[in-house]
Amino acid sequence: xxxxxxxxxxxxxxxxxxxxxxxxxxxxxxxxxxxxxxxxxxxxxxxxxxxxxxxxxxxxxxxxxxxxxxxxxxxxxxxxxxxxxxxxxxxxxxxxxxxxxxxxxxxxxxxxxxxxxxxxxxxxxxxxxxxxxxxxxxxxxxxxxxxxxxxxxxxxxxxxxxxxxxxxxxxxxxxxxxxxxxxxxxxxxxxxxxxxxxxxxxxxxxxxxxxxxxxxxxxxxxxxxxxxxxxxxxxxxxxxxxxxxxxxxxxxxxxxxxxxxxxxxxxxxxxxxxxxxxxxxxxxxxxxxxxxxxxxxxxxxxxxxxxxxxxxxxxxxxxxxxxxxxxxxxxxxxxxxxxxxxxxxxxxxxxxxxxxxxxxxxxxxxxxxxxxxxxxxxxxxxxxxxxxxxxxxxxxxxxxxxxxxxxxxxxxxxxxxxxxxxxxxxxxxxxxxxxxxxxxxxxxxxxxxxxxxxxxxxxxxxxxxxxxxxx
Length: 471
Prior knowledge:
Helix content is 30%, strand content 21%. It is an alpha+beta fold and 471 residues long. It folds into two domains: 1-364, Beta-lactamase; 372-470, Nuclear Transport Factor 2, Chain: A (Roll), CATH 3.10.450. It has a seven-stranded antiparallel β-sheet with strand order 3-2-1-14-13-12-11, sandwiched between helices. Strands 15-16-17-18 form a four-stranded antiparallel β-sheet. A hairpin with a 2-residue loop joins strand 1 (43-50) and strand 2 (53-64). The longest helix is centred in the C-terminal third of the chain and has 18 residues, at 372-389.
């Protein structure tokens, strides 16, 4: 789903994040409370494995605001793109059974896919296929408010010309995994949901995990919330049925995901060769590398191997990280979208790795050096922020989808909340390219607080997204 793979760097955290004298559960409870306060999230469910043993599964906050229901360890959350680990594992299982080969062209299973004879299953798995992403935005646009099917997504998005030659570039695309879900169905002869249930969830005892997109009638399932433009928590508009699928349909709990982490990294799901392929960095055709394997990001953190993936759907944020050589893992599930999950996973990782957090620089953290492109992005962020504060957005600057999303009422709410902050004192931006769009992440500093901004601009300069969340 949302395609921002988080950074796990542990360079900057508050000095209060390490509290070795505290009982670990007390430490986590304090860190979770601080995270909920900082992010405005409704709840967070936390699972921690240490040395191969689950040492904590606890939930904090409310799974639903109306009616008021507390989050519990068995509350289920949408895990978004963490689903990709399960889809990738399903593909590798089928490869082990010689029902498919990772070098097979996607055309063998989806004949209508553009350039299908030149795109392999492996390139779909490691996000180097070149297909346009059907879900690049951080909000539910008009199209996603209508039900769809995998076949419809494939017909609309996987038939478009590729954005680059397969294997030459990493570019995260949910469309790749929709195609992989279709491969699982064709090669196995059964729906993806049934395959995952029969081959992974049930054998591993993941009794609170499924691939079901509707939350209605299930009191153990959290509702998703948003704090859009610093508004109070409100129900997020969910993606309509059919949009998540093999790219993001799974709902689960931290306890179940820890079972998955333990089984996957100990060889109880895949052979050693398949697991090695899944967690290997990708060698690009131009000689470069990508740290995205098959549904997993593989990196090294302070000398420790780590595998991780984040997830985000409308109303939910999720994070799953495993240190396979240590037997450690951390799972965080929030029922609020666009949450800064680093506010919680970094303190926990510091604690697990017994790393003393650095003290903040006495004069504040040094500002990163911005490129001319970053500076241009920061200027645009400042301009749009001032327009919103004045309730005077120039709608000729917006795409049709974002124009419809930013209703006059929502603009008034944004103006009311943002005007209280005063003039922006500083904007630090990072600009990158994402599926032909300019993607900017920024922090905007005001006198009393900092907020985060994501901005997308199309090739013609139109603003396709400008969202503000707690910093």
